[in-house]
Write a structure and sequence with these properties.
Blueprint (H helix, E strand, L loop, with lengths): L25 E3 L9 E11 L6 E11 L3 E3 L1 H9 L8 H16 L3 E8 L10 E5 L4 H12 L2
Antiparallel strand pairs: 1-4, 2-3, 3-5, 5-6
């Protein structure tokens, strides 16, 4: 049973103090023959401005179509928490989150949006996506990028 390979569930939570993609864990998708969406809404994301060191706050939305592997939610929570002391521009943060999840799961499709709260009267909402090359999901990624609002 793949759940035994998950090391974080049922244990005392130790929060990483630095950016930690290595905390991400995956488990086997029970329905790989089907396409379906998985959405994570993460309303308490915090990172640091790499110039001023001031905190930036956001809701991170992650949507993906899994293939064989899926991200375990506690490990995702710890990974997102690890950005609290990470100095990164908003656009960098959402791209790092997406790339780490692609490396972990190799999903058919994924998109990540950051809804950052205003600073100096400006909100920033970076969006990135990925569709597996050579598949219909690559076309889907192009279409969604073209029509993104």
């Amino acid at each position: 049973m793949e759940e035994t390979t998950l090391s974080l569930l049922g244990k005392k939570t130790e929060y990483p103090q630095d950016y930690a993609p290595e905390v991400l864990e995956a488990f086997n998708n029970k329905h790989p023959e089907m396409d379906y969406w998985v959405r994570f809404n993460c309303p308490e994301f915090t990172s640091l401005c790499p110039i001023t060191g001031q905190p930036d706050f956001a809701t991170i939305q992650i949507d993906y179509i899994p293939d064989i592997k899926m991200v375990e939610s506690k490990s995702l929570k710890l990974n997102l928490f690890s950005f609290r002391n990470h100095g990164g521009f908003h656009e960098d943060c959402v791209n790092l989150i997406m790339k780490d999840l692609i490396k972990l799961m190799n999903p058919k499709y994924i998109e990540v949006t950051g809804f950052f709260t205003p600073r100096g009267g400006i909100s920033i909402y970076p969006y990135c996506n990925y569709g597996r090359p050579g598949t219909e999901y690559a076309e889907m990624a192009k279409d969604r990028m073209r029509t993104h609002r």
